[in-house]
Every structure is written in structure tokens, then in C-alpha cells.
Amino acid sequence: MTDRIQEFLAERRRAGRDNGPCLVVDLDVIRENYRGFARALPDTRVFYAVKANPAPEVLSLLASLGSCFDTASVPEIEQTLAAGATPDRISFGNTIKKERDVARAYELGIRLFAVDCVEEVEKIARVAPGSKVFCRILCDGSGAEWPLSRKFGCAPEMATGVLEHAHRLGLQAYGVSFHVGSQQTDPRKWDGALKSAADIFRDLAERGITLQMVNLGGGFPTKYLKNVPAVKQYGNAIFRALSKHFGNRLPETIIEPGRGMVGNAGMIEAEVVLISKKSEAEGELRWVYLDIGKFNGLAETIDEMIRYPIRTEADGAPTTPCVIAGPSCDSVDVLYEKKPYELPISLEIGTKVLIEGTGAYTTTYSAVGFNGFPPLETFII
Ligand SMILES: *Cc1c(COP(=O)(O)O)cnc(C)c1O
Fold this sequence. Notes:
24% strand, TIM Barrel, Lyase, Ornithine Decarboxylase, Chain A, domain 1, binds pyridoxal-5'-phosphate, 2 domains
């Protein structure tokens, strides 16, 4: 945790304003993360995945540092423009777009679109003529703690036809994209996708179409409980894979980090609402209910996929296994049960806990008013 976040939370407590869970995001950490990506992948442009944390201060900071932006909707495009990015630094990276939203994006100056099928290419050719399109390919998400489904992308063998169709309709067949799965802990996972991308480049070159760009997607991890490789290791592994598959004709590249850009910049302070036991048969197992759960910020605990570090003032003291649950009246609002979480025995009702690594995918996954609980309050410092 950064000193700035600690001081902010202490001040909030002193002022008696600590009456609900909140997220505090330290912009200095995001600035460092941006520089880390730029150093690790010096010839690659960064398109920050806005959905990870679209706070205006985060977008303005990244815009001022020279970042580009990966957006998924017209409101995200508008937020990014309002933060100072010019349209040539914004991609409409969602493969599922209403035609009227493509038209609106085009009106706003956006000329770079993701596709994964000929139907989407046709929408873009109709209302965003001459734009650049890149085709997303399916990618095996193994090694990722938050793997992606088959929802986005087509088989690599289909991508050639999709891009050729785009070319035929007057669009610029620009490149290939993929996403190796979020919180990808294995830097070697880019290799297989880059091989597929190089095959597509070759197939299209044989048909007289020159692709230029490979979008390496997101997936760069943030540290939760387990250590993860440094961003430099990802940069090295990606550079090796690019050289192996593209030889000395390296394509232009972009990355779309979300979690890796903002995850470790955020910290949630929450409060223990109740500690109880369910039955004598469960022995020492306690149930610890927090004032934050799946519906007001911690949605990524679904299937216990993301395991956040939880800090308490009694860290280091003897612990006991706990099931951790949220405050709502929905039975799925249990954060960790399959694998109980060790928390200090001395933990009491009313104690504050700190949940680390919560700068990404927390505020944006927070329900508006489920059960009367407000969306996660955020402070950007
Ligand atoms: C969400 C998303 C990202 C960001 O992924 P992370 O794993 O958070 O880095 C990047 N690209 C696209 C197209 C996305 O939808």
C-alpha cells in the first residue's frame, strides 16, 4: 500500500467520514505502470482498456502521458475524448457493436475498429467507410486466472476471409488482435497467438493484401496474493515471439493493458459487519461478513477466481480459517468459501480491513443500488 493511500484513509477516519466501503486510487502508481509498459515494450503503442477503471482523473492522466485508449462503447469514447485524447488515439475495440454506434463513433472521428466476422465488417463498411479494421482471433486462455470465453474472436483460419472481405468493401485491412486471458501469469502465452497472426499476415500477403498491425491485447497481471512475473519479462517474451514468427519484418504492435495498468494503484477499505459460526460441526470455521461483496465492488471473486490480499491491523497474529461474504441478501454474495481465507482470530465486528490490488474491475462492476447498497465510493488521489 502506498503512504499516500494510508494517509488519505487515516484522514477520512479522523474526520469521521468512514461510513462505508471505499476505493482509493493513487495516480502516482498508474504513472509508474504506464512508464513500465513503455520501457518493457518500447516500440509498442499502449491502448489503455478503459473498462478497467474509467475514472476521469485516470483517463486524463493517461492521455497526458501519451496513452491511446481501447474503448467498448460510445459513452467510453466520449469519456476518453473528454479526458483530452484525440480520436486518432482511440480504438473501438468491442467486436459486438450496434451499427448506429459505429456510425456515431465515426462521426466522433474514430477510424479504428475491431471485428471478428463478416457481418460486423459489413456494418463498418456501411457507416464508417475507409476505416481501419483488425480481426480478433480466438485464443486459448490457459494460464489466465480470469480466462476469456469463446465470446470474442474467430478461428485463425476464418480471419483471412474476414479481412479479405473488409478489403473488398473498401476498408483498410489493418491487422490481427487477440487476448491471451486476463491476469495471464505465463509470459510465453503470447507465442502461440503470434504464430497464428504471422500465418494470417502471410496468407493475406499471398492475396495481395498487406497487414500492418498486431494488437497483443491485455492480460498483463497485477499482484494479488501470489507473485507475478515483472512486465519486463512479458516484454522480452513477446519480443522473442515476434522475432521468431515475423523474422525481420516486425509488424507495428499495440497492447491494451487494463488490470496491469490500474490494479495495484487501488485499495479498498471495508468494515467487518458480523463474525459468526454456522454449526459446531464446522469446528473453528468462522463466517466473516464485510460491508463489501460481489455486488458493490468485488465481482471478480466470482468462482473465487481473483483472490485479493486482505490486510488487517492484527496481521501476524494467529489466524483461523474464515468464509468471507458480502453484506447483501443474495446467497451468491459469498467471496471465498471453497478455499477458506486465513484471518486473525482477534478480528472483531467493526474492524476495518484493507483489500489490496483493487484498482481494476471494481467500481465498474459495482451494481447501482442492489439491496440499497450504493455503488462503490471512489477517491482518486
Ligand atoms: C478488457 C479488455 C482488455 C484488458 O484486459 P486486461 O486483462 O485487464 O489487461 C484488453 N483488450 C480488450 C479488447 C478487452 O476487452
